[in-house]
Amino acid sequence: MRALLKASAAPGLEMAEVPEPIVGETDVKIRVLRTGICGTDLHIDTWDHWAQETIQPPLIPGHEFYGEVVEIGPSVHEVALGAKVSGEGHIVCGVCRNCRAGRRHMCIRTEGVGLHRNGAFAEYVVIPESNVWVHPDPIDPDLGAIFDPFGNATHTALTFSLVGEDVLITGAGPIGLMSAAIARHAGARFIVITDVSEPRLALARNMGVDIALDVSKHRISETQEQLGMREGFDVGFEMSGHKLALPEMIDNLTHGGRVAMLGLPAEAIDIDWAKVVSHMITLKGIYGREMFESWTAMSSMLKSSQVLRERIASTITDRLPARDWRKGFTIAEAAVGGKVVLDWTEL
Fold first, then answer.
1. Are strands 64-72 and 27-36 parallel, antiparallel or unpaired?
2. Residue 28 is part of which domain span?
């Protein structure tokens, strides 16, 4: 089969011919139809410090995908041949304290598809049946390919109650955009999202936000005045990882404000911890998706709202044949648009 391969411990990927994956006792083999390009894949391509510490080539990356089940192991009982599926990319041990308590997204031995085992930038991928998400309703293949990041946005956005709340989102990348659409769907009052990319802020305005703010030109406090807010934002989603984003977010929260943090900082962040204590601020780290509450919520929200479905789908700004993967990676690296999806029926 054809696959995008990290062949050696050096920058770059290559489209190569590799053996098809073998199906184990409880595994499911999926013919990949679409894949999304994630920031993690960009790190693997450039072979930065994180990738060097995490990846052991040869490896097929890719963990955002949609496809069709073509083979099942002898002990697979719930997933049927021909099912249209996406996949949860975190494979867990099942026996640690968190797994046994039903908190599988907190497993201490998580193995990542496309990180620690071969992933979905290929014609076929194999994952355990327990990681397969069968779509209960027909779904556009491109939208099915971004259920992984949509899940990150869902996990972040639904961590705290949003009904009637004022929400501040720092970072209008694809997941930030999705979280804005979810916050609107969930009943937030005012939603402000920040970035420094005008194309991404333009996308954000289609998500139903009240203000899309360029923080290279304006301060967040100005939006409170524009919206007639008196006490600050109730909930924050920190999606950027930028060292200045969280401190400014904290400065604009009401007492008792709550922050869900998905963005991974690349450097240390200087936080006024006295304010966190005295203003009773809650900071909660978010990683991946709740397994499988986030997945259930995603499918349910899309089924219940055509507006939300259209908004989530609109975060996909570039669709390319898999043979043009390098162009897709270049677009993703520019970080001015939304999601990039590769079509694996066009090799």
1. antiparallel
2. 2-146+315-343
